[in-house]
Each structure stands twice: as C-alpha cells, then as structure tokens.
Amino acid sequence: MGTLVGHVAPGAGFLLIGLWQLFSHIRLFLLRPSSYSAPVWFPVRGIRHLELILIIIGTTISILMELVIGPAKHQPFDDDGTIPSDHLHNFEHASISLALLLFAAVTIHLDRARAPMRDAVSQLVAAAAFAQQLLIFHLHSADHMGVEGQFHWLLQTVIAVTLATTLLGIPYPRSFVVSLVRSASLVFQGVWFIVMGVMLWTPKLIPKGCFLNLEEGHDVVRCRTHEALERAKSLVNLQFSWYLTGTVLFVVVFFLQMSKLYPEEPRYLPLVKGGGSDSDGRFSIGDDHDDEDDLEAAKSGFGHVVSGARPIEIER
User: Are 133 and 126 in contact (CB under 8 A)?
Assistant: First the structure.
C-alpha cells in the first residue's frame, strides 16, 4: 500500500461503498421514517449480493497486490521462510483486507442461510474488521513520526468513528443518525486514503523543505529540518480539516437533494380483526408481524412498500 496506487485504489473502494451506503440509508429513511431499521448491507436487483461481492473482489485483489504481485520476487518471504522487515507493512495491509473479506463472506452466508440475528452478527464481524484496521494503523510498522505518520494518525480518528458507529448500530438499529455518521465516515475514509496517496507520492506536492527518500523498497517523505517537518504536519492537519468540512457539506447537500426525490411513502394500514383483548369483534389497526419482510422489501425494492398488508376482514 506504500505507493500512490496502493492508497488511491483502496480509497476508491471505501468511497464507492460509503456512497452506496449513504444513498441507501438516506433513501430508506426518507421513504419510511417511522419504521426505519438500518441493515448492514443493501441488496441490488438482479445481483442480490453485489455490494458484498465487490468487497470480496476488491479485498482479494488487494491481498494479491500486497503479497504476490507487488513484491519483486512475487512472494513476500525471505529465503529462509521468514518475513523480512521491508515486507511487514505488506502483511499488515493484507490482514486488513482479509478481515473485510471475511465480513463480506460471512454476511453472504448468513443471508443465504436465513440465520436469526444475521444483521447483528454481521455488524459484529464488521466491527471486528474495523477494530483490526484501527489497531494495525495504530501499531503500523511504517513511519509514525514523519509526514506519513501524521496522515495515519488522523486516519485512525476516522476509523474509530466507523468502529464506534458500527458497534452502536447493534443496540440502536433504528437510529438514522448512527447509520448516517457511519456511512459518512466510510466516505471520508475513502477521501482521506486518496488524499494520502496523492499528497505523499506526487513529487510536486511534497511540502517545501521535504523530499522523497527510498527506504526499505518504498518512497518515504523526509524533511531536512525540524521546522520543515512541523510545517508539513501542520499542512496535513489543515488538509484534514478542509476535507472533513467538505465531506460534511456534501452529506448535508446530498441529504437535502434526496429529500426532494424521495418523499415519504403513504402507508395504508388495513383493518384486521384483532385478537386477545379485542376478541369481542372489535377491529385493530396494523400488525407488526411482518417487520422483517417489510425491511427486505424496503431494502431491495424501489416501488411502493406497504407494511402489514392483509385483506380486510369484516365480521357479520
């Protein structure tokens, strides 16, 4: 991952999934605000598990790039079978990709098996993946003190938000705010990965007083003086602030535009014969028996969804 492409490619992946999640959660909430319940993923017509399949494809390519295609010998081990120090970061990046691949594969299996509590289990697996991502970047074998380390330190704050909102999504599945922040954090992860790749490995964009130095097989930004290093870190902080502001503005504008395109659906709650205390023949309105089926319909369908639709029963 220690190259321009190695950061831009995964950044594009996070950005794509984040935008899809952002669009889908906002749309689902606008259509059915009173019955909104946040799914972990969203099916696509024609290819139900497309979102998860893309994650599997992307993470598989990432692992191959880190461990097979990228290394000069097309394998990351030393002659004696050990992991050389200049390939530690390859294994770290591949481990993050493996955790995300596991999440996607487990989620597909749970869905096909129609397992109970499958969304909660999938969220736990996703949380484990983001926890691993946070831990690896915190203990990264790459530079912690230089310009790249400052980019990584700020990235950890975004990953922490993604992790926290993923965990909060388990006890609070009906909180739109949790889903919105999680989706926005995925978008910002993608943006920051792309910014990191462009700013760290484009020679013309290296801060004044700093330069690219080849170390252990990949280029690292080094600064000639302590003053130049502190200036470069301050510039990274400013970029983070600007891109965060831009992302927040984008999310707000995106939400407002979508609210015009997707007004709340009218919900026709049919009269059904009640049971229990209403067994004397009175009618009750609605039935929450089919909440899960309604959620599946809302996730995958673009048409009108009516909750608890049943024929009207008239007692004579």
Answer: no
Q: Are 100 and 154 in contact (CB under 8 A)?
A: no
- What type of residue is 296? E
Longest dimension (CA), the chain: 91
**Is the pTM value of this prediction over 0.90?**
no
Contact by Cβ (8 Å): 143, 220: yes
Count Cβ neighbours within 10 Å for each residue of 64-75 and write b for 16 or more, e otherwise: ebbbeebbeeee
Lowest mean pLDDT across 78-82, 127-131, 280-284: 280-284
Q: Which residues, in sequence order, are CB contacts of 204 under 8 Å at separation 6+?
A: none
For range 268-289, the mean pLDDT: 45
pLDDT exceeds 90 at position 243 = yes
Q: How far is CA 89 from CA 122, 143, 219, in A?
A: 27, 11, 13
